[in-house]
């Protein structure tokens, strides 16, 4: 019929509040058939009297009736007849412990009999407030929010109590006090997020009255499960040590709940071993690395920070590597690198070439921007770190280059005679790799290829020429051309006299005759001839006249000579004369003969050309020109004599035809009738003497 707590507690002097509500089915039905409460009474320790068929006991409250004097003024019925049937008893006495019963008798319009109930609540009135009850989980986990409830089966608005949590003063616990509703209970729920610090803490719930007096309390010891704390990998004696030292690694955890059940050691992320400690002798390559450990308890696994262990050792396995092309050619860039294992890494490198220190080179790389052949040799390096140093094996640096210093020489020591064996030596100063082929050129065209540097052939005329050779090795490198000449031995040939200056020769100037020829070997002496007569004391290549005189006109020849023989040059004429072969006074009608007289000519003159007033006038085979003197014949005459080799030109001669009628009375100034000069060029006209004008006097 009602909703009431099963039991409540209270204590002396406190009040008792019994929350009570009618169940909906009791009264809250449709109005037409609404039941009515006919009897309502609260008893203390009601006892059923079978005779009276009624309950008896201490009446605490009876509707529309008087109350037991012992409770007078202490009992209040808080309810009504519709919903609420709550009762409050204040200032409780110790003997008021027991069962509190609510007797209800209800009449129902549609039922003949009345319906009766008794609701009972057992109430324990204690001497003092009991300890509140703490509802908490057996254990907590750090960081996982948890709730703890402090609870007591008491609630009375007239005598309020306070449940207070103490013992969790760190962090931000969330207190939430909840008190009475229909349950008749008071509770205080503590929500908090446990930390490892809370483990073992005494968490107390205190019950106090409003006057601040604390009456009772309950305590739980918190069991907070937490992950291993401050997990560290410890290395002794040091995380940086030299090879060979014994190292001990141990994994430590400051605290853990429950205790750490497993340790694991890792190197570079790989499980090394299960267990808390590990001891070993440090080996550089094997043991250098990044270490960490893990500590696990039932709940968590925690990693330590990573720890780098450096096992130091002097450089080892040093070696020199060629970083550039394995075939090293002169002028290329070559880089040698010194590599090694070392801890700490090598900081300093010493380089050696042929066991000599390479000065000022302390880098890992030895660099040649343009390597030279003389830098070849065996190289090694010596890397060094703070622990020590080590030497690498040597490597050979072999520098290849094309043939150098190619020279072509004629090896024959003595005079070569026709038919001798001629030896040409194409010598190569150096070459790496060695020369594989020699190519020979004669007069700039390829002549032969040989594997040897020697070319031999018999001395003949056809072999004469300019020779060069070219040496080649596998680098396809060519030696520069190198000219050498070979001519088969021969007497002088093509001897001829060159005249300098090669123009009009003036009296008193310097004239040089030079004898030139081809000869192998070259001419060693010269013989000169004038007009076919050997000139004494003239054996030089040149014949020199410092101030030539007309008397020195003549035909000159030279004869060069070498060990093989001699040859004679054609004659060179250096004079031509024109002679007027006529009366000294030429009168009209006289026969005039001009005589072009050649001092000497070899071969003989074949043609004479006559010029009058600079115009070609006539050609003759003889050296004379004859004509009758007329006035028109007056003029300047010259002649030119030619042979197969050359020609010479005379100077001009004036012919003046005199007036016939005044023969006896005239006076004539004759031009000088004789000049001698050698000349080459007819364009040039130089007169030696003035022409005097003839005057006819009447
Ligand atoms: C209670 O008393 C009131 C008047 O005081 C009366 O009206 C009512 O009928 C009585 N009820 C019962 C159940 O006696
Ligand atoms: C409780 O004890 C007091 C005296 O101490 C007495 O007067 C009273 O009647 C007792 N009450 C009950 C319900 O026995
Ligand atoms: C409970 O106690 C706290 C601290 O003593 C106080 O602040 C609070 O007002 C009290 N509450 C009640 C309902 O007495
Ligand atoms: C504590 O009190 C509140 C409000 O009265 C209630 O809702 C809650 O169920 C109670 N907790 C316990 C454990 O009794
Ligand atoms: C908790 O209470 C017990 C008993 O009073 C005491 O021995 C212990 O030291 C307390 N613990 C803490 C953390 O205060
Ligand atoms: C470990 O080595 C470092 C560097 O070599 C040194 O500074 C440090 O003192 C050493 N520690 C111990 C414990 O030997
Ligand atoms: C490098 O090594 C050379 C030779 O051992 C030494 O003279 C030089 O001081 C070293 N330099 C450094 C920086 O260690
Ligand atoms: C070629 O010339 C080189 C250098 O002058 C010389 O050493 C070598 O003996 C010569 N060879 C011959 C076959 O003459
Ligand atoms: C031309 O003159 C030369 C030299 O004076 C002379 O020997 C020669 O006989 C002359 N010739 C003639 C045909 O007169």
TrEMBL record:
Residue intervals of the Ig-like domain: 228-303, 315-397, 403-473, 492-563, 570-652
Entry's Gene Ontology BP terms: B cell activation; cell adhesion; negative regulation of B cell receptor signaling pathway; regulation of B cell proliferation
Main subcellular localisation: membrane
Pfam families on file: C2-set_2, Ig_2, Ig_3, Ig_CD22
Key words, A-Z: Cell adhesion, Cell membrane, Disulfide bond, Glycoprotein, Immunoglobulin domain, Lectin, Membrane, Repeat, Signal
GO molecular function annotation: carbohydrate binding; CD4 receptor binding; protein phosphatase binding; sialic acid binding
Signal peptide: none
GO CC annotation terms, alphabetical: early endosome; external side of plasma membrane; extracellular exosome; recycling endosome
Annotated membrane topology: Single-pass type I membrane protein
Subcellular location: Cell membrane
Family membership: Belongs to the immunoglobulin superfamily. SIGLEC (sialic acid binding Ig-like lectin) family.
Function as written in the Swiss-Prot or TrEMBL entry: Most highly expressed siglec (sialic acid-binding immunoglobulin-like lectin) on B-cells that plays a role in various aspects of B-cell biology including differentiation, antigen presentation, and trafficking to bone marrow. Binds to alpha 2,6-linked sialic acid residues of surface molecules such as CD22 itself, CD45 and IgM in a cis configuration. Can also bind to ligands on other cells as an adhesion molecule in a trans configuration.
Subunit note: Predominantly monomer of isoform CD22-beta. Also found as heterodimer of isoform CD22-beta and a shorter isoform. Interacts with PTPN6/SHP-1, LYN, SYK, PIK3R1/PIK3R2 and PLCG1 upon phosphorylation. Interacts with GRB2, INPP5D and SHC1 upon phosphorylation. May form a complex with INPP5D/SHIP, GRB2 and SHC1.
PANTHER family named in the record: B-CELL RECEPTOR CD22
UniProt-recorded name of the protein: B-cell receptor CD22
Protein source organism: Pelusios castaneus (West African mud turtle)
Taxonomic path: Eukaryota, Metazoa, Chordata, Craniata, Vertebrata
